Structure formats: C-alpha cells, structure tokens
C-alpha cells in the first residue's frame, strides 16, 4: 500500500478490471487498462523487460519529479489479477499478465495527448532547466530527440516513462560509489538547448528535496519489488541504500549541474 509523504497525498492503489489495449511503442509493452475506480491508466508490468527495477525507477523518479513541481501524470499502484489473462487472445499478452500478478505501477492515462515536438513547441528556459536538472539527478538516459518521453496535454508538457532512470541499481550491491559522478549523457537531452537557467534552478530545486521528502519517496517502494535473485539485502536495507545514494547525489550535485552547463555551452 502507499505511504503518505510529508505534506503530500499517499500513492493510491487500484485494481485492474479490464485490459484495454497494448501500447507497442516501447520494448516493455505497457498497456492501457481500466481500474476499479473507473479510471484509465497506462500500466507498467512488473513481469516485463527489466522487471521490478524499472517500476522502482518509475516510482522514485516520478515522485521526485512531482516533489519538484514538474508536470507528471498521477502514479498509482495497480493490483493485477492473473485471471485477466483469460480474456486476452494474444499469448504474449497472456504470459505478460500472468508474470505480473500482484502489485504493478501505472500512470494516469491522458486522452488526446500528443508527442512533444521540439521544433514545433519550444520550451521556456525555466521549465527546460528544471527538467534537465531533474533528469541529471536521476540519471535518466531516455529523454532524447529520438525518444523524448514528453507529451503535450491541454497545452502543457507532461513527463512520462522513467523506467530507464536510476540505471545504477541494475546489478547493484548497495554501494553509493558513483553517486557524485557527472552525467555525461545529459549532452543528448532534448531540452538542453533551452536550459539556460540551470545555475538559477539548482538551489531552488535542491531545497524541495530535503532528507524527509527523499526518505518518504523511497519508503513507498513495495517490499515485493525488492525481492528476488538480484536483491542484495532485505527490503529495509535496500531502501536505506536508495536514500543514501540519492542524498549523496544531492549533496554533490555541483558535479552534474556543471556538466550540464558545459554540455549546453
């Protein structure tokens, strides 16, 4: 279940009631589903691709973005009954649903949203700088001109798909070594040309991520996502390692901020 953040709403948990359609753009094949609150969501399957690690990245990075005041669809936990597979004719989808039984993650479905076009829709320097800063913090490799992972909905930018962030945690032993490294791949960021206020955005954004906020975000990671063959410790120890890594990265953020400024220059 979701845990309340300081001065924040808890992450809701819904149950999937209907598989609507697959979204075959990504390798993990997310899907539009309907839930028991009558809402529509884009479901990220625990049994797909990188497995629970991708869901942890979606959750932690997404909720950090929300804490920073960046526009992102609501994130919810989704209970998935493997019996839903019986109504699907595609064997691949059947296997994916069965492999993902239990707690998954989804983002609110934004009907009518369109993909962001950096040529047609330039972004103001303040918002671009805040998004670039955020992506450098969470080491998000997947916000490039080829794959922006940005939508435009009701004329507002929306950040989506953070499963490729926090890539340090694949094959991780819990060490915070590397937390203070620059993020060289920020040079490929789709919004970097507009991010002319990185130095100004830095103190404002860092102030929105005090230790209690980071701790509350990490505490929301479900136990079931922290178990399995790649778990290096019990869930509480792993959460502590995530907190320590992120707090170290924030403390040493000058490195990634200066790298982004150099890349833009």
Q: Could you characterize what this model shows?
A:
The protein has 265 residues and is of the alpha+beta class. The protein folds into two domains: 13-108; 114-264, no CATH class. It is built from seven helices and eight strands, in the order βββαβαββαββαααα. The protein has helices spanning 52-67, 91-99, 125-137, 198-207, 211-219, 235-251, 254-264; strands spanning 13-22, 31-35, 40-44, 75-80, 102-108, 114-115, 150-153, 156-159. The protein has a five-stranded mixed β-barrel. Strands 6-7-8 form a three-stranded antiparallel sheet, with no helix packed on it. Helix 1 packs antiparallel against helix 5 (211-219), helix 3 (125-137) crosses helix 4 and helix 5 runs antiparallel to helix 6. The termini are far apart. Mean pLDDT is 93; it is low at 1-7. This is HipA-like kinase domain-containing protein.
- Uncertain segments: 1-7
Mean of residue pLDDT values: 93
The oligomeric state of the chains shown is single chain
Q: Give helix and strand order, one letter per element, not per position.
A: EEEHEHEEHEEHHHH
Straight-line N-to-C gap = 45 Å
> What's the β-strand tally?
8
Whole-number count of domains: 2
Rg, please? 18 Å
Pfam family, one: HipA_2
Protein name: HipA-like kinase domain-containing protein
Domain HipA-like kinase: 22-246
Topology (SSEs and partners):
Elements: E1 13-22, E2 31-35, E3 40-44, H1 52-67, E4 75-80, H2 91-99, E5 102-108, E6 114-115, H3 125-137, E7 150-153, E8 156-159, H4 198-207, H5 211-219, H6 235-251, H7 254-264
Parallel strand pairs: 1-4
Antiparallel strand pairs: 1-2, 2-3, 3-5, 4-5, 6-7, 7-8
């Amino acid at each position: 279940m979701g845990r309340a953040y300081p001065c924040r709403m808890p992450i809701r948990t819904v149950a999937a009631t209907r598989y609507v359609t697959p979204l075959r753009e990504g390798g993990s094949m997310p899907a539009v589903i309907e839930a028991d609150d009558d809402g529509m969501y884009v479901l990220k399957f625990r049994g797909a691709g990188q497995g629970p690690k991708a869901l942890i990245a979606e959750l932690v990075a997404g909720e950090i973005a929300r804490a920073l005041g960046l526009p992102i669809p609501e994130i919810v936990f989704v209970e998935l009954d493997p019996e839903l597979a019986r109504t699907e004719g595609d064997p691949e989808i059947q296997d994916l649903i069965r492999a993902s039984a239990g707690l998954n993650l989804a983002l609110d479905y934004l009907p009518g949203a369109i993909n962001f076009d950096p040529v047609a829709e330039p972004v103001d320097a303040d918002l671009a700088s805040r998004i670039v800063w955020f992506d450098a913090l969470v080491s998000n490799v997947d916000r490039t001109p080829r794959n922006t992972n940005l939508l435009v909905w009701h004329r507002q930018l929306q950040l989506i798909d953070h499963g490729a962030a926090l890539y340090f945690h694949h094959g991780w032993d819990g060490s915070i070594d590397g937390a203070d490294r620059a993020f060289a791949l920020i040079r490929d960021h789709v919004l970097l040309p507009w991010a002319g206020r990185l130095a100004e955005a830095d103190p404002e954004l860092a102030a929105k991520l005090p230790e209690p906020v980071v701790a509350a975000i990490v505490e929301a990671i479900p136990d079931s996502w922290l178990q399995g063959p790649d778990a290096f410790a019990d869930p509480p120890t792993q959460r502590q390692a995530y907190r320590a890594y992120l707090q170290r990265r924030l403390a040493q953020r000058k490195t990634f901020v200066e790298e982004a400024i150099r890349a833009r220059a």
